[in-house]
Write a structure and sequence with these properties.
mainly alpha; 112 residues
């Protein structure tokens, strides 16, 4: 897979989920702006609890990775991806972090 295709697929995934989030989540949240209730709705049964816990732990894994690479490889601005990982979601934050990381690592290798 080429690097260009890699980036395009990641950006497409981030855009897809952002649009999905905007269509599915935003209208009910506008109608009932109870953020804690919306969060708790992710834990209404064992299946949704499993998926919700997976998303939370995936965000934590991404956070550990971002902090590690900021120190080890001087990857900058990863914290923005962590914020994006909260809203609209980890799928978007993770995809954008990979794009950001790819560009910065390429520049680092080029400069060495």
């Amino acid at each position: 897979m080429s690097e260009t295709l890699f980036r395009r697929l990641l950006i497409a995934a981030a855009v897809f989920f952002s649009v999905f989030f905007a269509i599915v989540v935003i209208p009910p949240l506008i109608a009932n702006p109870d953020i804690w209730g919306a969060f708790a709705a992710g834990f209404v049964n064992p299946y949704s609890s499993g998926y919700s816990t997976d998303v939370i732990v995936c965000w934590f894994v991404l956070a550990v990775w971002v902090v590690y690479e900021a120190k080890a490889y001087s990857i900058r601005h990863g914290w923005i991806c962590l914020l994006i990982g909260i809203v609209p979601g980890v799928a978007v934050g993770f995809a954008l972090y990979l794009v950001l990381r790819s560009k910065q690592l390429k520049q680092t290798i080029k400069n060495e």
